[in-house]
Design brief:
The complex is a heterodimer of chains A (113) and B (113).
Chain A: E1 5-7, E2 10-13, E3 19-24, E4 31-38, E5 42-50, E6 53-57, E7 64-68, E8 74-78, E9 87-94, E10 103-104, E11 108-112
Parallel strand pairs in A: 2-11
Antiparallel strand pairs in A: 1-3, 3-8, 4-5, 4-9, 5-6, 7-8, 9-10, 9-11
Chain B: E1 4-6, E2 11-14, E3 19-25, E4 30-38, E5 45-51, E6 54-58, E7 61-66, E8 71-76, E9 85-93, E10 102-103, E11 107-112
Parallel strand pairs in B: 2-11
Antiparallel strand pairs in B: 1-3, 3-8, 4-5, 4-9, 6-7, 7-8, 9-10, 9-11
The chains are: A mainly beta (113), B mainly beta (113).
């Protein structure tokens, strides 16, 4: 069974640009969450989507947004990039049941110049 | 005070040693507890997933949860060089969505041959 797939793996952007990252969850998983990982702050929750609806949101500015499609694939978008947005962006998927854990992809490494 | 505290290490042990990794937390609403292993340039990989208090064993790994002390542990028996990685504890509240995991900062473990 294929795991969570994230594309692209690496991305370099400049300040002020915008970026879109993609995530394909494990087959059958309808819950998709996004996290930001930095050396200073560790892993921080961005948002979660289920059935094309945002179900939960972390404490990030509105420049960070996401969406989910009917096939459960998800994208996140960051507009007006700042140097501090350089991070590893991780996507996780799970079955929609309280006793089911999240499984992570290998992330997209975003570098802002 | 951070919701989840984890000693960042680094922790260096000889091959075959028993490793003890720990996290403390402050929010008594946390009910689900996880340990993830993250290799360099990879996403977190789920190792253990437990609900409420008690012990859970899987091969060389044992997870313990003590809710009265707000303390969780991961023990690795007969540690191997391939166990060298960063270990992340994570937790979430009962009910609601699978997303919004709260992570510790991670402990970097090195197992020397």
């Amino acid at each position: 069974k294929a795991g969570v797939t994230q594309t692209p793996r690496y991305l370099i952007k400049t300040r002020g640009q915008q970026v879109t990252l993609s995530c394909s969850p494990i087959s059958g998983h309808r819950s998709v969450s996004w996290y930001q990982q930095t050396p200073g702050q560790g892993l921080q929750f961005l948002f979660e989507y289920f059935s094309e609806t945002q179900r939960n949101k972390g404490n990030f500015p509105g420049r960070f947004s996401g969406r989910q499609f009917s096939n459960s694939r998800s994208e996140m978008n960051v507009s007006t990039l700042e140097l501090g947005d350089s991070a590893l962006y991780l996507c996780a998927s799970s079955l929609d049941s309280p006793d089911q854990p999240q499984h992570f992809g290998d992330g997209t490494r975003l570098s802002i110049l | 005070q951070k919701e989840v505290e984890q000693d960042p290490g680094p922790l260096s042990v000889p091959e075959g040693a028993i490793v003890s990794l720990n996290c403390t937390y402050s929010n008594s609403a946390f009910q689900y507890f996880m340990w993830y292993r993250q290799y360099s340039r990879k996403g977190p990989e789920l190792l253990m997933y437990t609900y409420s208090s008690g012990n859970k064993e899987d091969g060389r790994f044992t997870a313990q949860v003590d809710k009265s002390s707000k303390y969780i542990s991961l023990f690795i028996r007969d540690s191997q060089p391939s166990d060298s990685a960063t270990y992340l504890c994570a937790m979430r509240k009962y009910g609601g969505s699978q997303g919004n995991l709260i992570f510790g900062k991670g402990t970097k473990l090195s197992v020397k041959p």
